[in-house]
Specification:
This protein is an alpha+beta fold. Among the domains are: 59 residues; 122 residues, Glucose Permease (Domain IIA). It contains six helices and 14 strands. A hairpin with a 2-residue loop joins β13 and β14. The longest helix is centred in the N-terminal third of the chain and has 126 residues. The chain is rod-shaped, with a radius of gyration of 51 Å.
Length: 439
């Protein structure tokens, strides 16, 4: 049975791959090579396999090339969106800063108005007290005059009762005249006192109405100040929140950094000095406490701004680039930085304020720049084409320090960027991503 199956297979192969002989002739002899159907089938299968493999490999290469092109286009679109987002954030930050400055000016104007109103209110209170004292004096004088009038009337009645009807007119005439003159004087004094009392009462009523108007105006002023304070607090909180988030995301000890900056700038005065508001040496009012809270937050924002210039939060490349390699293991070794690829000679910028501690050639780094920053940080810029700084030179964030190149152990034009904290390499993207909402 097996022989029959093998025979049928051999006949089928001979039908499609008949036996062939290849003759090889030389000067002395002629030889031939026998090609059996099985060997022809193997050769045919090998050829088909090779052609199929070539077609599949070519397809994969074409798909990879197309995919790489789409990835590059997507990266360009994302970079463009990122730049647009940065521009929008910068404009929004400037708008918020302008609003905060205008609110602060309105706040200072309101404080001046409050001070003027308080001075006017104190003056009105003093005048009211003086009027009250005058009214008391007049009332006392009035009571004394009335008492004297009653006593005089009693004396007159007694005098009239003691005089007889037959008394000569020459004796009663002078007494009656004196008594009448006294009564006229007392009546005139009483009238004057009554008129003064009415005038003082009317003036006191006008003073009370004026005080009521001042109290109403002061109440409205307090409400307006409360709205201004609320707007200021909201604006400061919105501006301070991204800075808090940025420093927290970077993993740096925020409070220790701010204390260091505060100590370094404490002798300069200005916005970093402790600020308080008080009027006439009195205890701080709730508005003054709110104002001090806003000023403390603004002081913290200023400290953040100074500290941000000293920490590497910005990108080392401001032109268009491609992120080619990240921080971490690569090819069996630790890649201690991040690679940015761009055109040869692309400007490279310092990412924070610092001092150049190395600028030259260093083995596999090629042309290398090291910048020492505060708080124990160091940044490295490797594989440069040109170095534009010198050792000992102070640089600021955003200042151009070199050109991108391909020096040292490098497979192409790119920038190798490192951040080291106390000598230990850390992921630079941690700082760059932390500043996405700020810079």
């Amino acid at each position: 049975m097996a022989n029959r199956i093998v025979h049928k297979i051999r006949l089928m192969l001979e039908r499609y791959f008949p036996e062939k002989r290849l003759f090889v002739r030389s000067d002395t002899e002629t030889r031939f090579i026998r090609l059996t159907p099985a060997s022809q089938l193997i050769a045919w299968a090998g050829g088909v396999t090779f052609v199929s493999w070539s077609i599949i490999a070519t397809s994969f290469l074409l798909m990879d090339a197309i995919g790489s092109g789409s990835i590059r286009e997507q990266a360009k679109r994302e970079q463009k969106l990122y730049e647009m987002r940065l521009n929008d954030l910068s404009q929004e930050r400037d708008t918020r800063a302008t609003e905060a400055r205008m609110a602060r000016e309105r706040f200072n104007t309101a404080l001046d108005q409050i001070s003027s109103m308080q001075l006017a209110l104190l003056g009105s209170e003093d005048r009211r007290k003086e009027m009250e004292k005058g009214i008391e004096v007049i009332q006392f004088t009035l009571r004394r005059t009335i008492h004297e009038r009653d006593a005089a009337r009693t004396l007159v009645e007694v005098a009239q009762a003691g005089l007889g009807p037959n008394l000569p007119s020459t004796q009663s005439g002078p007494a009656d005249a004196d008594l009448a003159a006294t009564l006229d004087f007392l009546s005139a004094a009483l009238n004057r006192t009554a008129n003064q009392r009415d005038a003082i009462s009317e003036q006191a009523l006008r003073t009370q109405e004026y005080v009521a108007e001042l109290e109403l105006e002061q109440k409205l002023l307090f409400e307006r100040n409360d709205r201004i304070f609320s707007q200021l607090e909201d604006a400061v909180s919105l501006s301070l929140a991204p800075l808090d988030k940025m420093f927290a995301a970077s993993g740096m000890p925020t409070e220790r950094i701010l204390d260091t900056v505060r100590r370094g700038y404490s002798g300069q005065g200005g916005p970093l000095s402790p600020l308080t508001f008080s009027i006439h040496g009195q205890a701080l009012s709730p508005d003054s406490l709110r104002a001090n809270g806003i000023l403390e937050k603004m002081d913290r924002m200023n400290l953040y701004r100074i500290a941000a210039d000293k920490l590497p939060f910005s990108l080392p490349v401001k032109s268009k680039f491609r992120h080619t390699s990240g921080f971490g293991p690569r090819w069996g070794r630790m890649h201690s930085g991040t690679d940015f690829a761009a055109a040869y000679g692309t400007p490279v910028h310092a990412t924070a304020d610092g001092v150049i501690v190395f600028a030259g050639w260093q083995s596999s780094y090629g042309r290398l720049i090291k910048i020492q920053h505060e708080f124990g940080l160091e940044t490295r810029f490797a594989h440069l084409a040109k170095i534009r700084v010198k050792v000992g030179q102070k640089v600021s964030r955003g200042e151009r320090i070199g050109d991108m190149g391909n020096s040292g152990r490098s497979t192409g034009t790119h920038l190798h960027y490192e951040i080291r904290v106390s000598g230990k390499a850390t992921n630079p993207m941690t700082y760059i991503k932390a500043a996405n909402d700020v810079f």
